[in-house]
């Protein structure tokens, strides 16, 4: 059962679209597992839409509608037709349709964005190993202020002791882990602030897969440095 | 369902079922000046006319293309169009940012996912009781008007100006805690279930 949720600030900024993409990815991952927060986001989006509707209107250029219609007539078939005819017409225009990669069972119930990221199987991803039971795979979010990664901890294994140079958000995608403070489950959205030390340990019965994003000064961003830092 | 909402929904349905150009034009006349205003508020006027017109065009093109996926039973047409405009804005800002980065590093890379994979569209379809939802939406409309200015100002900044809580705190020279609590107060007044 999900116990840790993003606070109102995260949910509001997410629904407004202003949350940095790496953090929004974490919120989206949590929403995948949490119907209660989905309802909240849906309400917040209604608030946004009320505010959107209450704006003072600004006239668009005179030919705006014609431009839209021209662009539409240049486009191949749209969603108003069935999926297959869309692909067929895309194929007809010479666009290559990549077949959906086969997904293994493990990946199937992960949040949509994470599924895409894995390309169908987490074993296809590029992992870096630290120690016997911990590995991570960096996600390129095009954001140089944050580092986002998938973390994989073997059942019973632990993340090497580390310190945060900035705030870190972790969302559990599979399995569970414990640290000095609590035991965390699938969907939990855990925020750790700068300077906290912790040593998460995965539960004995299952590997643990997490999504984590850290905002931090560049030097501390890398797992390698984060592990070394306490030594200095 | 109130009259206006019902009207937009049925126009969307006509676009979906019959590719009805006239219905689409009515939607365009109503929504595009709102989308333009929404696009212009983001990051001030510095991005210029082209940026906001592009958002209007891209959003309306998606409205046409995705009309079939609009669920008249579950979603509200205005909210649906707002989320498309929001995602389009995120997408264009993201593309601009990538463009600059690639120029700086000459390092091209493909995004691992689309904006729609993170800001998932059917997020509005979870509210189970539609009657209650409709009542809420009318109450919401009324209680929005009754909010104190200091609270509605912050909500407008959050939703229209694409500013995070911390950016708003900086701009208004308020502690982050004050911004958070004004948002929370406002949301409580709107009797939303968000209360943490
Ligand atoms: Zn939640």
What does it look like?
- Chain A has 232 residues and is an alpha+beta fold.
- Chain A has a domain at 122-231: Sandwich (Jelly Rolls), CATH 2.60.120.
- Helices cover 36% and strands 20% of the residues of chain A.
- Chain A contains nine helices and eleven strands.
- Chain A has a six-stranded antiparallel beta sheet with strand order 1-2-3-11-5-8, with helices on one face. Chain A has a three-stranded antiparallel beta sheet with strand order 7-6-10, with no helix packed on it.
- The radius of gyration of chain A is 21 Å and the shape is globular.
- The model of chain A is unreliable at 78-95 (pLDDT under 50).
- The longest helix of chain B is centred in the middle third of the chain and has 29 residues, at 77-105.
- The radius of gyration of chain B is 18 Å and the shape is globular.
- Helices cover 71% and strands 0% of the residues of chain B.
- With 196 residues, chain B is an all-alpha fold.
- The chains are: A alpha+beta (232), B mainly alpha (196).
- The interface between A and B is large, with 62 and 79 residues.
- The site of zinc ion has 6 residues of chain A, from α3.
